[in-house]
Amino acid sequence: MSLNELEKIKSEFARLSLHPTYLEHEAVTTSEDAAKTRGLKLKQGIKALLFTNGKNDWAIVNMPADQKADLKKICLKLGWSRTSIRMATKEKVEEMTGCEIGSVPPFGHKTLIPILVDRLVFDNKESAFTIGLRTNSVKIRTREMKDLFKEIDAKEGDFVE
Known about the structure:
Layout: H1 3-15, E1 21-24, H2 31-38, E2 46-52, E3 58-64, H3 71-78, E4 86-87, H4 90-97, E5 115-118, E6 126-130, E7 136-141, H5 142-151, E8 155-157
């Protein structure tokens, strides 16, 4: 559970004068459950996944919730070996992001982690994602998320299969 990350997200939205809608709902752990709870399409969700190369290098990859990560494309962008990339363990997700799996937001993590964003995220007018707790989400105009990602120096690219 991470009230700290939730507050970081809210502070960043306020600092940038963005206009999110905050949602409280039943606890969700999967993108499918989150989309149903929010009343949105699965592709409108932003899924944040933590990857490592096993050498203490980390990256958060944000993509539409209906997509799967393409490890080869991620490795190319990061300069990692295809044989070394793996998803973080539950324990490492909590340690690095301050959040449980299922509540990791696209930005605002406990640890400063490089952020990648798949361009398909920007195909929606509105996006949604959890913000540090499995019971808290945000809906926001995707145009505003694009501005936020630019502000935090997230790297855009093609990272899905």
